[in-house]
Amino acid sequence: METSNRVFSPWFLAIAVYACFCSMIRERIAVESSHVVYETLQGSSPSSVDPTLRTGYHFRPPRNWINDPNGPLYYKDFYHLFYQYNPYGSVWGNIVWGHSISTDLINWKALTPAIYPSKPFDIFGCWSGSATILPGDKPAILYTGIDTQKRQVQNIAFPANLSDPYLREWVKPDYNPVMPPETGLNSSSFRDPTTAWYNPNGHWTLIIGNKRDADNRGMALLYRSKDFVKWVRAKHPLHSAKNSGMWECPDFYPVALRGKLGLDTSVIGAGVKHVLKMSLDLTRYDYYTLGKYDDNLDKYVPQNTSLDNHSGLRYDYGNFYASKTFYDPVKLRRILWGWANESDTPKVDSDKGWAGIQLIPRTIWLHRNGRQLLQWPIEEFDTLRHKHVSVANKLAPAGGLFEVKDIQSNQADVEITFDIPNLDKAEDFDRSYIGNAQAFCGKNTAETKGGVGPFGLYVLASSDLEERTAVFFKIFKNGNKHVVLMCNDPTRSTKREDIYKPTFAGFVDVDLSKAKRISLRTLIDNSVVESFGARGKTCITSRVYPAVAIGKDAHLFVFNNGAEDVKVSELNAWEIRKPEMNQEIIY
Ligand SMILES: *[C@@H]1O[C@H](CO)[C@@H](O)[C@H](O)[C@H]1NC(C)=O
Ligand SMILES: *[C@@H]1O[C@H](CO)[C@@H](O)[C@H](O)[C@H]1NC(C)=O
Ligand SMILES: *[C@@H]1O[C@H](CO)[C@@H](O)[C@H](O)[C@H]1NC(C)=O
Ligand SMILES: *[C@@H]1O[C@H](CO)[C@@H](O)[C@H](O)[C@H]1NC(C)=O
Ligand SMILES: *[C@H]1O[C@@H](CO)[C@H](O)[C@@H](O)[C@@H]1NC(C)=O
């Protein structure tokens, strides 16, 4: 039963001391954080969880608030996911490390929280961190603790019992913190250690997010250790950029120049590029650059095609933050986890009893053009595909639309390929929008008539189309090239007016002059629309809360508001089954 508090009671008893500290936090407030703090809502959980728009197949606990994915790892036949979790309410606060295990990254069983405040070095919070698998298959977690002085410090934790494949219990040695904020560092901007990589010069290396106040410079501070216990800060950061503000949840890893295979985080050498990702607190989005890691200098330099600021590349141009990758040694791939928050109001979140999900884990690899990464839902996701419909060679005429019938589309997976026979009607691109897709799509909605496009999907639509979320492409001319935009327009997603409905958009780096076609895959899960354009080149996630288009009343349409006909050469849609989602708790 989702509606009961009982499931947590043995754990509550076990950590009564911790609960006592939580009530201290609740009354006093507040730990400095990048989250808005709603003090009165932090500990108020309703007696039942409102299932109406609740996601079914995206990762989430039975109830309450979650944010960042933490320490993903594989150990003795199980994938582990930890996550920032409020056990008492559905706004941010009282943060512990929730913990779940899976054999396929899709079906999950819950464990009791792995790391929670209990020592002077983390008594005011256990914030984000990462796992590293040390030689001999020994996992170690490094995380940010909030200490008795409310400073951010980095702590280490080890499994209590390496024979336990569930890694239920974690030990935090008394020599913590292993990385305190030294003089000169702002102890409110010092968090989120990464997975460490082994530098051939003989040391473990990792980075920590930081900001230098003088020039608002975001930084990836570099730390080294020979034994993983004693850590020393290097003089220079791995990388930094002025005016970028606090870098949260950095991630740093190698990608192969060719092919989809992932690499262990310690792989260094001629056949790889490196990815540096940071979550910018200023904008609340995740950005990455591709570049070169010099392991002698311990420096990273972005390549000249990667913009090193918040006009740069994003994993996802929508609601996606605090992401983290890990290397999967079973299927030899790198997997990306990212968090999506709600767009509803904190009061409503609190009344519903749930807030936040992790998006479908994505396999991530380098495009052969070397300029960007590609992402695709892990193959295991396809095991949830159920009832299927398909459409082939159907015209989406200029100004027209058709409904995709015979499946219930509120929880669905839709793959569609559009053929664009003629690009002549493409309008000239207004160059003032170069680098700013989102501003463009904010002005030019799904209803703005165009030359080639907008064409795409209306999802979570009411039968009369009063409610609908549009995911679409629009194509322009820029000299003798084409500019392709992908947009997610939720402005008509619900009749409710109190909801945050940002339009999201990204450019799609495709050459339409050769193959005049473009594909879209969209995962729909009641209040989530997660889309992958052009086989994973541009991804956009959005949270929407229809008032009418719920359950069986949610419809799916293909539309074309351009002046040029397009053809749906292929469309496949599946209903998606609900996996096991943390209902069962293993103590
Ligand atoms: C360690 O875990 C194994 C496997 O779950 C279990 O059999 C054993 O009793 C555990 N040891 C301790 C000391 O808890
Ligand atoms: C330290 O960082 C915090 C959080 O960004 C900021 O509010 C504070 O002003 C900074 N302290 C100094 C001395 O600049
Ligand atoms: C980027 O660097 C490559 C060599 O790595 C060079 O061929 C290319 O001209 C450079 N592009 C720009 C825009 O500087
Ligand atoms: C990012 O850098 C590029 C190239 O230097 C520049 O054209 C662009 O304006 C910058 N964007 C922001 C938001 O600073
Ligand atoms: C998610 O919530 C919206 C408001 O509903 C905020 O505007 C975003 O900043 C927030 N995103 C993150 C990553 O916290």
Automatic annotation (TrEMBL):
Record CDD domains: GH32_Fruct1-like
Molecular function GO terms recorded: hydrolase activity, hydrolyzing O-glycosyl compounds
Any Pfam family hit: Glyco_hydro_32C
Every Glycosyl hydrolase family 32 N-terminal domain range: 58-377
One GO term (biological process): carbohydrate metabolic process
Similarity comment: family membership: Belongs to the glycosyl hydrolase 32 family.
Protein name: Beta-fructofuranosidase, insoluble isoenzyme 3
Organism: Canna indica
